[in-house]
Design brief:
Elements (H helix, E strand, L loop, with lengths): L2 E4 L3 H12 L4 E5 L10 E4 L2 E4 L10 H9 L4 E3 L5 E5 L5 E3 L10 E3 L3 H11 L5 E3 L3 E7 L2 E6 L4 E4 L1 E5 L2 H4 L3 E3 L4 H9 L8 E7 L3 H4 L2 E7 L4 E6 L8 E7 L9 H16 L8 E6 L35 E4 L11 H14 L4
Helix pairs in contact: 1-3, 1-8
Length: 349
């Protein structure tokens, strides 16, 4: 095996697709039972609801080109109507707020439609899910990857297409330099400490009432809310980012109760009784978050590939993933940017 790609999120999938098109030898392994990484779309009836990232924007050329090439349809985030604001005492005001995501772009079928197409197009022999790499050992003949099920994979080089903090859990032999490990630990995993709630309804009653579905709250538990409905038809949905820290949201039943109560305050009694409420806590996902990711991020980090994470193992150990993309780090576009960057330095064999 020439190249082992560890991590089947968007970056790993994009790299695998490019290597497949170039006729290069590779194997893509993913620890989860599914491909897609932090891109996860729930299907409910005819509706699709992103539990991870949902948007991309104009000026992000790689994802725009990929979406067009895959024949996926794009539509704008719904933002027609009044914004809603809730103060710390739970008092609600219409026409006030700053959370509109007007201009953001979504994919018909969710972002999961993109990663699903990429994964399905790869030959079965070139991909393996449910395969967590626990150790990488470099020897005279190449690199041996040891998996959680006890199996091994031999490769000439390895690309770590996953968050650097998650990569620190792998046992490296010989050990990586201390400066490299410290740099990996210092790279925040974007949105890893976040939880996202999606409330699904048969009617978009907030639209009928002249509301956009955009809301901000200083009471919570959700701090920012948006319309998450499909482009056309139902079911419809509102989604929100949970502002309660991970340690304060461990009781899911209590959290769900508070979410429903808040939706009722913001959008009326119908909102307090969703047909289905999905809560995805990424901080509880062992393949997304480490203990270092539980502290909240108050601004978008400045991402890049640190010098101490380059040229490892004589150029045979590489990092990809959105957190090492210097221009669009943290976004889906950054995942593609990172895959493009590592592809440019890999041997064409």
């Amino acid at each position: 095996m020439n190249t082992l790609i560890v991590g089947g999120g968007l970056s790993g999938l994009a790299l695998a697709e490019a290597m497949e098109a170039a006729g290069q030898e590779y194997l893509l392994v993913e620890a989860r039972a599914r491909f897609g990484g932090r891109i996860k779309t729930a299907l409910v009836g005819d509706g699709y609801f992103d539990l991870g990232p949902a948007w991309f924007w104009e000026g992000q050329p790689r994802i725009a080109a990929l979406v067009a090439r895959l024949g996926l349809e794009v539509f704008g985030q719904y933002a027609s109507g009044a914004l809603t604001f809730e103060d710390a005492q739970g008092q609600v005001q219409r026409g006030r707020g700053f959370s509109s995501m007007e201009g953001s772009l979504r994919i018909n079928g969710g972002l999961g439609a993109l990663t699903e197409q990429l994964a399905e197009a790869l030959p079965a022999a070139r991909k393996r899910a449910g395969a967590a790499v626990v150790a990488l050992e470099r020897g005279a003949e190449g690199i041996t990857a040891r998996l959680s099920d006890g199996s091994t994979i031999e490769a000439q080089r390895v690309v770590l297409a996953l968050p650097p903090r998650i990569a620190t859990r792998i046992r490296f032999s010989p050990a990586l330099p201390d400066a490299t490990t410290q740099a990996m630990e210092a790279v925040p995993t974007w949105m890893a400490g976040q939880a996202k709630a999606v409330a699904i309804y048969e009617r978009a009653f907030w639209r009928e009432a002249g509301q956009s579905g955009d809301a901000t709250s200083r009471r919570g538990p959700m701090v920012e809310i948006h319309d998450a409905s499909p482009e056309s038809g139902g079911p419809y949905a509102l989604f929100g980012f949970v502002g309660v820290p991970p340690e304060g949201r461990r009781n899911l039943d209590v959290l769900r109760s508070h979410i429903c109560a808040q939706l009722g305050r913001l959008f009326g009694p119908s909102a307090a009784q969703p047909a289905q409420l999905i809560v995805k806590d990424w901080a509880a996902d062992p393949f997304t978050a480490t203990d270092s990711d539980l502290a909240p991020l108050f601004a978008h980090p400045v991402y890049t590939l640190p010098a101490t994470m380059r040229g490892l193992w004589e150029g045979n150990l590489h990092f990809a993933g959105t957190e090492v993309a210097p221009q669009f780090g943290g976004y889906a576009e950054g995942a593609l940017e990172a895959a493009e960057a590592v592809l440019s330095v890999l041997p064409h064999d």
